[in-house]
């Protein structure tokens, strides 16, 4: 994949865009999806990068300060202009570590979505790792056996072992070039003691995962994204590998060079000649990296030492490339979320007949209800089906309050393919599909009442776990008021279900939502 703008576009409808709101930089990649006999490939059309340093704007109590907040929105507005008019199905925007931990991230995301003009997903660390691997795997040479990918970001570092295009072992640690630099090199001051402490702190984090990674093993090591690329360029341009630039640059397709243990140590030795980062003289040291590369260097040295790495090839391809390939996979019905739900159903031994029964009926009810202009009906049907498939996973823990256990698992487990918002919506449907509604009525961010109505009604009607005796039901909604219509004769023959429907109506009335059961 060439990282140069194209002179012309044969079909603008093929354009896709990924926006990566990282802890150090905000990036956007616009590419053309090109179908080939071997599969779909991406041809970059345009790239944008803004050094926002969002992580540097976090206060001690995890509030994103106003300066960083405004820097972020300013960059996002520029991105929004570039992709104005794009089909929403062709754009995916993701946010990473800083917006995972900031207490005011929800407000920032809401403002950022207005500025961008598209939804923004805050993704979990393991999901970030999965997407990073997908991006790197599509851009580096194939290897027989396992591949290790390491991505040092501004606020976190991802470690992934995979084979081919499939990630198998994924971890995200809370060590990043911005946060590490702020912690150990405050105000840009440098000394050997602080650098040693920075290395040891990173090594302690990596030691937690090193055993499993070393046991798995790998044939190829790839460093992806900004920190790895910056270190490779510094090592190469200053000849710290003991080799000429021609031997160290461009080792990976679309790549930026080679990092060696020898080069990292030479870079460290050179850095420690200075007392302040502003004094450092190095070929290729960019101003927007000057304040954060010491932390990145300490983390990379710790990675090499703990995992026994001697050399690492570097690629520019990272999260944003993985986001685009994952987006294309969804459009081609290779959505990782379906795979994840299937794995959860297997893990928690879900009654598949019942989940199918509830999901089918809930989807039929949703299809009868009005579709607001703001609703993506196909996305909501998918979410409703996933909720039906997973609504009983809590039974593996306890029958009492099982819906609470189901919601906790969905809200807190690593679920590849799902954004944090996806998981939050899914967990809310699971906590609300049974029991009292008050817990959601007091949640101002919950907006999926229509889907919850369908899921709860399907669950009540399917209590008998039998396909043969389900009634014909019509549902309607007007201004938030629900009407459920079914045969009076059927209700008389099923007194428990009729009683449950009346209890359901009373529960909705209790939270201020009209719910009528009509028997004719």
Strand arrangement across the biggest beta sheet: 8-7-6-9-11-10
CATH-level-4 superfamily name of the largest domain: Exopolyphosphatase. Domain 2
Q: pLDDT below 50 for ≥5 consecutive residues: which ranges?
A: 1-12, 243-256
Coarse shape: elongated
Quaternary arrangement of the chains shown? single chain
DSSP helix count? 21
Count of individual domains? 3
Classified by CATH, the class of the largest domain is Alpha Beta
User: Which secondary-structure class do the elements indicate?
Assistant: alpha/beta
- Using the coordinates shown, work out and report the CATH topology of the largest domain: Nucleotidyltransferase, domain 5
Q: Could you explain the architecture of this structure?
A:
47% of the residues lie in helices and 18% in strands. With 520 residues, it is an alpha/beta fold. The chain folds into 3 domains: 12-123, ATPase, nucleotide binding domain (Nucleotidyltransferase, domain 5); 126-319, Nucleotidyltransferase, domain 5, CATH 3.30.420.150; 335-519, Hypothetical protein af1432 (Orthogonal Bundle). The strands form 3 sheets. Strands 8-7-6-9-11-10 form a 6-stranded mixed beta sheet, with helices on both faces. Strands 3-2-1-4-5 form a 5-stranded mixed beta sheet, with helices on both faces. The protein is elongated, with a radius of gyration of 26 Å.
Condensed summary:
The protein is an alpha/beta fold.
